Amino acid sequence: MTELIRFDQVSYRYPGGQDVLGDVSFSIAQGEMVYVTGPSGAGKSTLLRLIAALCRAQRGQIVVMGQNLSVLKPRRVPAFRQHIGLVFQNFNLLADRTVFDNVALPLVVRGYAYADIARRTRAALDALGLLRYEKSLPLTLSGGEQQRVGIARAIVTKPALILADEPTGNLDPKMAMDVMRGFARFNEAGVTVMIATHAIDLIEAVPKRIIHLERGHISDRLPTAASRLGETHGVR
Amino acid sequence: MAFAEAGLERPGFFARFAQEHLRVFFFSLGKLRQTPVAAALTALVIGIALALPAALYVLTRNVETVGYSWRESLQISLFLKDSVSAERGAALAHEIGARQDVAKTQYISRDQSLTDFKAQSGFGDALGILDENPLPAVIAVTPARSVGKAGVQELDAELGRLPEVDIAKLDQKWLERLYALLDIARRAVGMIAVLLGLAVMVVIGNTVRLDIEARRDEIEVMKLIGAPDSFIRRPFLYAGFWHGLFGGILAWLLVTIGVHALSGPAATLAASYGSDFRLSGLPAADGFSLIAAGIVLGWAAAYVTVGRRLALIEPR
After folding, report:
1. Are residues B198 and B248 in the same domain?
2. B76 φ, ψ to 5°?
3. Model ipTM?
4. Tens digit of pLDDT for each residue in A98-146?
5. Alpha-carbon Rg of chain B, whole angstroms?
6. Considering chain B, what percentage of its residues have pLDDT values greater than 70?
7. Final residue of a domain: which of B171, B206, B232?
């Protein structure tokens, strides 16, 4: 399978702070779905941020979609990021724009024709059961619905890679399960999905490969529930 | 990198450019409409700042016009020698009048001078006791309009060297002082315009800076989804454009209102000096230049501010 992401002995330290990741190496193939697990402060979010070029590793090499991020020029970062769908725990929606406008934003940024933007946006909203809210403002929706708007925005460009940082952190169990199954559906459609989470019960419900982090290093010692999955779906 | 863009059409560069600018044009206007009071106050501050140099400019233009009308009354008086006969004097006036740098001449004979002096001075009886007419014959020379200050001085010197001429007198000191004052006023207008232009940039820059801070979260989201700086910057540049446009229009309006308010008293004052002078406002071309200046200042201020602030905002 084609390699989509490769980490070679990557280390990252906060400016003036402590080490967050140390000598992390792994590879993710195109079409995989991977959970990044670990306790708070293990470096899950930082790992996703490095992949999205939101920060730059001090050591090691990161290659994403054939692009070596160590040598990626700052002015090329936006164009690179346009091809990644990002989902966040706090949704990151624009409160003064309608659901439709929020979801359409990545397409507007890329300069598509308005007719195509409208069609593609409504298709994304429809896929997530949000079409009836297209004219609503995000804050009038529930947490689960807002997260689905965030996911619709992430998938509307049909990215090759979706990165989700604790996407179920603010959701109740049922909504969290719906969201996780949604990611699995996108993955089945061929999209590579990487989810940082510590929700082991959800991982158990939708079992996939796991990268487990402990204090910035990849670890084989999975939490009890996840260890069973690790045996069947692979760790690292 | 292979990306799924099936079914999506990307218009050509110019179509995309027009689509995006049209979108931001109305989007930024809509943003201003959301805060009408703040937008109006900003426009008012900019309007007043632009109106001040514009009003001074209008003032200097009007004073210049008055100066030019007075310029027409500028004359060179050629006092002829006593030995020059009345016939020769009249002929000389005719010769001088034929020159290209002279608009007209008037010969005033010695007798005519005496008659005029008696009538205007009230010393008629005193002059009567003199044995002979002490006043010389004079040729009043009006230079052509096209002749500049230096040309008039040259003409004065040249005519003064004529053998029939005793003294050539050109009294233009007052005019020189007026032109010097106008020159100072013009430079002052330029300096004030530069200073107030900078003030306009500071006002717009600060407004845009506050707008950027208020929309910090939005900018972070934009960066997260891969919006380039040019895309993020554009609405703020248009905000600067709108502030400058409205400020410029308001400045023109303020100057026009000011001229209208002063035109009545100015006409009355001019009439008392026997002049039909009318105060003129900002010509349309200058008015549009004022608006253009507002737009350029607004755009430039926004560009500088956004450029500096955007670099400081990174997604958390």
Report:
1. yes
2. -105, 125
3. 0.86
4. 999 999 999 999 888 888 999 999 999 998 889 999 999 999 998 889 9
5. 33
6. 92
7. B171
Which residues of A are less than 8 Å from B227 in CB distance?
78, 109
Least CB-CB distance to A158: which of B4, B15, B228?
B4
Specify whether B55 is located in the same domain as B82: no
Which of the listed residues B136, B171, B206 is the one where a domain comes to its end? Answer: B171
Neighbours of B144 (CB within 10 A): 14
Residues B269 and B186 grouped into a single domain: yes
Nearest residue, CB atoms, B8 vs list A66, A84, A120: A120
Residue in A with minimal Cα distance to B220: A92
- What is the Cα gyration radius of chain A? 17
Q: Are residues B256 and B271 in the same domain?
A: yes
Q: φ and ψ at A108, to 5 degrees?
A: -65, -45
pLDDT in tens, B90-108: 999 999 999 998 988 999 9
Q: Do B226 and A116 lie within an 8 Å CB cutoff?
A: no
> Residue A114: which of B19, B223, B224 has the nearest Cβ?
B19
| pLDDT above 80 (res A233) | no
What is the number of structural domains in chain B?
Answer: 2
Of the candidates A83, A92, A120, the beta carbon closest to that of B221 is on A92
Q: Can you tell me the distance from the alpha carbon of A40 to that of A26, in angstroms, rounded to the nearest whole number?
A: 21
HSE-CB for A63 with a 13 A CA cutoff: 12
Residue B118 has a pLDDT of 77
The answer as to whether B224 is a domain residue is yes
Residue B255: inside a domain, yes or no?
A: yes
Question: Does A189 reach chain B within 8 Å, measured CB to CB?
Answer: no
What pLDDT band is residue A207 in, cutting at 50, 70 and 90?
confident
Does any domain span residue B8? Answer: no
Looking at every residue in chain B, the average pLDDT score rounds to: 86
CA pair distance B72, B145, nearest whole angstrom: 7
Tokens of A108: 């507007």
Residue-level pLDDT at B12: 80
* Residues of chain A positioned with their CB less than 8 A from the CB of B2: 65, 160
Domain extent at residue B257: 22-69+177-312
Min Cα distance A49 → chain B (Å) is 10
Residues linked to residue A84 through DSSP beta bridges, in sequence order = A161
Q: Verify that B238 and B294 share a domain, yes or no.
A: yes
B227 within some domain: yes
Asked if B3 lies within 8 A of A160 by C-beta distance, the reply is yes
